[in-house]
Amino acid sequence: MTAIARAVPVDLPFQRLSALVEQDMEAVNAVIATRMASDNAPRIPEVTRHLVDAGGKRLRPILTLAAARLCEYPGEDHVKLAATVEFIHTATLLHDDVVDESGQRRGRPTANLLWDNKSSVLVGDYLFARSFQLMVECGSLRVLDILADASATIAEGEVLQLSTGRSIAVAEETYLRMIHGKTAALFAAATQVGGVIAAAPEPRIQALRAYGRDLGMAFQIVDDVLDYGGASAALGKNLGDDFREGKMTLPVLIAVAEAKAAGDDAALAFWTRCIERPSKQRDGDLEEALRRLAEGGALARATERARGYVTSARGALEIFPATPLRDALRDVAGYVVSRLS
Amino acid sequence: MTAIARAVPVDLPFQRLSALVEQDMEAVNAVIATRMASDNAPRIPEVTRHLVDAGGKRLRPILTLAAARLCEYPGEDHVKLAATVEFIHTATLLHDDVVDESGQRRGRPTANLLWDNKSSVLVGDYLFARSFQLMVECGSLRVLDILADASATIAEGEVLQLSTGRSIAVAEETYLRMIHGKTAALFAAATQVGGVIAAAPEPRIQALRAYGRDLGMAFQIVDDVLDYGGASAALGKNLGDDFREGKMTLPVLIAVAEAKAAGDDAALAFWTRCIERPSKQRDGDLEEALRRLAEGGALARATERARGYVTSARGALEIFPATPLRDALRDVAGYVVSRLS
Q1: CA A167 to chain CA mean position, Å
Q2: What is the mean pLDDT of residues B64-82?
């Protein structure tokens, strides 16, 4: 890599993609603002505005818009679908706040600290219902089918995470199913419905779905690696959140597997104590975990896994002719992993 | 009323209605059992079975089945819609358990005491998603539209209840909007979709909707009156639950309005203290509330309001020819209020 290439901001691909769907995205923001209002329950926009203003990147709705445009969709319903996808995502965050008892999200206090658990659950339900209304307005049963399946997969993934949490015996296959539900299922639906609403040929629809799914898998693995630091500073997410909750994520999973293979009883004892009884963690445990994961190479190997999904996501787009939009989508996949370096 | 009529069990109309859709209901139970299973997350049926086994009356799915049959529906999709309606109801109960911190439902410990808040939120989400899949399978955009609107109204009603709770200033109109969201919206959707799936003439569809809505309004008012005792014993619900949570329900609303009109400062001070700061309630407060509501006539006047909705619900069915099914639906409306006597 040349000095010039290194000087380029790492999120340039994302900015390029955003710029290509900028007008559509303004329409999405207008739909979001209108639809989260409630004459009957003014508390609702109070809670949602907090989350929406927190200014996530809106990656998911941008993907829906880009997928529809990539398939030369001439209509307007992709705007509603993009808003749908963002509402589902926001609702999931609200319910996740309740269940994870996490104190921060995107660097700001979570909704349930500012309001309460009750509001988070019910406002999340409201956003799910609003997203449901938006999709019905688009009038495509296939779109509804895809988003209904995604909703079920998301919920299954979250429950699976609950019931398999705090055990170092979690199989890698289970972890992959969990992150598929937690993240990749909505990414896959977000890109697929863009193709469906555009009535694209079936192979292109499937390619968009594969792209979204693999991008989502990479995105979540990177998130899990970043929880143990990666090389980047200034993260919105607290370092070590997953560790303190005893969550089995890919870096720990790899470290545990390697400790078993090497017969390293000290390492196994460390992970068992910290993951299975997180309330018993002591000062210095997080630092030890960071050191073990970095020096043992688990972070590097997890990053390799993410890169594999990125390659696969990029490959799925080969079916489309080379256009600035296709190339921006392809490069965004690489950007996801570049957050680590 | 003759001695013989008094000897008839009060839930006879409900039993008659159940018997008329018994075979369909067996199919609904089979769909519920199949669809609440999850290969990926075995925790899910654990939680839902608890609720389903608790054996609510399944009034809502029975209404959907009966509405479809009343419109001479020859198909099978009403079974899926009935299961949909029951899943939405069960999901709402699960989320309500989280938000109300209530210790009992249907006389058994609530799911969130047996498991935890996390499971209640996420399994509720799973049931919503499953209900969504079931409706999509029926392939009717109008049905989807009705149930999406009902979902939004339910969530708005719950949020409204949160934000207006613990204030004796709640207007009757606000209370009515709240119980419409909390209960009547799903009843209305349950009966309306039965007519829609049967492709009934529009006036019949609207009549079924009006019947469900007014039945739901009566049902919730009766529930609110029963929380202060009614005349019946052996209720699954704890007496005084609403009072202890500081919920403004119709009996208290009426008592407060009458105290204001009469300039009864002692009564106003009592209700203000108990409803606006429920944690400061003292021994004997519930007994005083029960006495004030019974002797002051607020329970009787709230019951009258419920009777008004029952009359309206029964009237809506006049558009249908007299059949055993129509008459059973009509009589079930009366049964709802008969729980009070």
Answers
A1: 23
A2: 97
- Structural domain boundaries enclosing A136: 17-330
- Substitution target from A162, A167, A180 for chain B, most B beta carbons within 10 A: A162
Strand pairing partners for B108? B105
What whole-number distance in Å separates Cα of residue A170 and Cα of residue A168?
Answer: 6
Question: CB-based contacts of A3: which residues, under 8 Å, 6+ apart?
Answer: none
Q: Which one, of B27, B23, B21, B97, lies nearest residue B328 by Cα?
A: B21
Structure tokens at B62: 């029975």
Contacts of A67 (CB under 8 A, 6+ apart): A190, A191, A192, A193, A194, A195, A198, A208, A212
CB contact under 8 A, B152 and A132: yes
- Determine the pLDDT at residue B55: 57
Structure tokens given for A207:
């390619």
Name the pLDDT band for B46 (thresholds 50, 70, 90): confident
Instruction: Name the residue with higher pLDDT: B335 or B163.
Output: B335
In a domain, A285, yes or no: yes
DSSP letter assigned to residue B230 = T
pTM: predicted TM-score of the whole model, two decimal places: 0.89
The CATH number of residue A197's host domain is 1.10.600.10
| Residue A286 CB contacts under 8 Å (≥ 6 apart), including other chains | A239, A240, A243, A244
Using the predicted structure, report yes or no on whether residue B99 has a pLDDT greater than 90.
no
In this structure, is residue A173 part of a structural domain? yes
CB contact under 8 A, A95 and B139: no
- Are A133 and A153 spatial neighbours (Cβ–Cβ below 8 Å)? no
Instruction: Note the pLDDT tens digit of each residue in A276-328.
Output: 999 889 999 999 999 999 999 999 999 999 999 999 999 999 999 999 999 99
Instruction: Kindly state whether residue A336 falls inside one of the protein's structural domains.
Output: no
Q: Is B144 touching A (CB cutoff 8 A)?
A: yes
ipTM confidence? 0.87
Token pair 């659950």 is at which residue? A121
Q: What is the mean pLDDT of chain B?
A: 87
Q: State whether residue B140 sits within 8 Å of chain A by CB.
A: no
What domain count does chain A have? 1
Does the residue A3 lie in any domain? Answer: no
Q: Which of B92, B120, B126 to mutate to test the interface with A (most CBs of A within 10 A)?
A: B126
